[in-house]
Design goal:
Elements: H1 7-15, E1 23-27, H2 34-46, H3 61-67, E2 74-77, H4 80-90, H5 106-109, H6 112-117, E3 126-130, H7 138-149, E4 155-161, H8 169-172, E5 176-179, H9 185-196, H10 202-211, H11 216-223, H12 225-239, H13 247-259, H14 270-288, H15 300-309, H16 312-327, H17 335-350
Parallel strand pairs: 1-4, 1-5, 2-3, 3-4
Bound molecules: zinc ion.
Zinc ion binds near residues 49, 56, 59 and 60.
Length: about 350
């Protein structure tokens, strides 16, 4: 099933399956359910029982194949790093190994030519889900382009993208764009509560949703398990301001969140931590000007304390620095140095000015 806020689009699309294009580009903000939509659509098209706007039946032979990850008429293409992370999550004995590529490479895409040129095994659709589409390197993108230029019947490419502006214009022009929107706060919050269960901490859910800018799937990830523990520690570090913690040891801690230890996947990407820090600072600044604490509502006391002591100019200067940090957050810079620098700047910015002599 797709979440409520995507259901109307589902109904519209599946009311006229004969009008499905050869390639669909599913876009929209991160964490709102694009990937779930792509999977559900693939499953539904391959299902041998479902008709009309119904979802896949979960029971037919095709649905069973799909659930086992071995459907002969389905291909899932993602960067090796993502596939690896999923495999590691389901196999705790994995010892890690070489660093997996964060790009979709041509050797992953090349076999698709054979896949779409042979007749389907189950006499229905052939579906390829490719995500994130902007993860394709240039060779892979050119190879996909060739396939899109010579469409075959009953084949659907579902490309999922957070950043369609990074795709080749020639690919964009070959796809029908399907833009999914962020849900209203109310539906996102209700969905999140349902996922987390009745006993979930309401404050943590509120904070997660605010911090993830209303993106429910990101918020759900944040509100549970390892990510929730990281969030709590992150907030603790920032709330201490310039006091207590030595920034070097905090930087070391943050680095481990972004690399993952042996047998563990990384909990966060560094850009997420920069984003959180930007939001934290925006709350401190907002508090200084008498505004609301929007992103970290459970931390109003700590934020108020920092707002009372830090100089506005220092906070604004750090905001500028963070824009630059964010711009290089995807570069393979040394993580420790990256966070050392970031945290030293943070401590300086939130410190109370030295008293005049
Ligand atoms: Zn089925």
């Amino acid at each position: 099933m797709v979440p409520d806020w995507i259901a109307p689009i589902w109904v519209k699309l599946m009311s006229q399956p004969e009008r499905l294009p050869h390639a669909l580009l599913v876009t929209g903000p991160m964490g709102i359910g694009k990937r779930v939509f792509a999977q559900e659509l693939a499953r539904r098209l391959l299902c041998e029982r479902a008709t009309g706007t119904a979802y896949a039946c979960d029971q037919c032979a095709s649905c069973t194949w799909f659930a086992s990850g071995n459907h002969p008429d389905f291909r899932f293409i993602a960067p090796e790093s993502e596939l690896q992370a999923e495999a590691d999550a389901s196999d705790s004995k994995n010892e890690g190994g070489d660093k997996a590529s964060s790009q979709i490479r041509i050797d992953q895409v090349r076999p698709l030519a054979d896949f779409i040129s042979t007749s389907s095994h189950r006499h229905g659709w052939r579906v390829v889900v490719l995500q994130p589409a902007e993860g394709m390197n240039l060779h892979a993108a050119n190879s996909i382009l060739k396939l899109l230029e010579e469409p075959t019947n009953n084949t659907l490419f579902i490309m999922v993208s957070d950043e369609p502006n990074k795709l080749l214009p020639t690919i964009l022009s070959r796809c029908r764009k399907l833009a999914l929107n962020k849900p209203s706060y109310e539906s996102a919050r209700a969905w999140l509560q349902h996922q987390a269960g009745k006993s979930a901490d309401a404050c943590l859910l509120d904070a997660s949703l605010a911090l993830c800018s209303g993106a429910p799937y990101l918020a759900a990830e944040l509100a549970q398990g390892q990510a929730a523990a990281v969030y709590a520690e992150f907030v603790k570090h920032l709330a201490q301001g310039s006091a207590a913690q030595d920034p070097i040891s905090v930087a070391e801690k943050w680095s481990t969140w972004c690399t993952g230890r042996k047998n563990e996947r990384a909990t966060l990407e560094r850009v997420v931590l920069v984003d959180w820090l930007q939001k934290w600072l925006s709350d401190v600044l907002s508090h200084q000007f008498g505004g609301a604490v929007r992103f970290f509502p459970t931390q109003t006391a700590a934020i108020g304390k920092l707002a009372g002591q830090a100089r506005t100019e220092s906070l604004l200067a750090l905001m500028d620095d963070l824009v630059r940090f964010r711009a290089v957050a995807h570069h393979p810079l040394n993580l420790r140095l990256f966070f050392d620098d970031l945290l030293l700047r943070y401590q300086r910015a939130v410190a109370a000015p030295a008293p005049a002599r």
